[in-house]
């Protein structure tokens, strides 16, 4: 069975991410493949890096005033596709 790879979006301290890492990551074929945030200083990125998980930052300014979750999702779909299928 191939792993079920998940991408996590976080913007804060990463307590929910840590719970996922502690309880789910690496179990039953589930793998946190990457973590992204719109805040470069988010502690969640450090937690992910400490766990050996790839991280990325997508700052809101990239999208101007038209930023919305749908805009972000559509514009980043290609970037994330490799994580989901690799």
Topology:
Blueprint: E1 4-9, H1 15-23, E2 30-37, H2 43-50, E3 54-57, H3 69-85
Parallel strand pairs: 1-2, 2-3
CATH class: Alpha Beta
H and E order: EHEHEH
> What ranges have pLDDT less than 50 throughout 5 or more consecutive residues?
none
Give average pLDDT, whole number: 78
What is the terminal separation in angstroms?
Answer: 14 Å
Shape: globular
Main sheet specs: 3 strands, parallel
Category by helix and strand content: alpha/beta
The CATH topology assignment is Rossmann fold
Approximately how much helix is present in the residues? 25-40%
Biggest sheet strand line-up: 1-2-3
The proportion of residues in beta strands is 15-25%
Radius of gyration: 13 Å
In CATH, the architecture is 3-Layer(aba) Sandwich
Number-wise, the strands total: 3
Q: What number of structural domains do the residues give? A: 1
Number of separate helices: 3
Could you describe the 3D structure shown?
By secondary structure, this protein is α/β, with parallel strands linked by helices. The protein has one domain (4-85): Rossmann fold. The protein has 3 helices and 3 strands; from the N terminus they run βαβαβα. The protein has a 3-stranded parallel sheet with strand order 1-2-3, sandwiched between helices. The longest helix is centred in the C-terminal third of the chain and has 17 residues, at 69-85. The chain is globular. The model has no long low-confidence stretch (mean pLDDT 78).
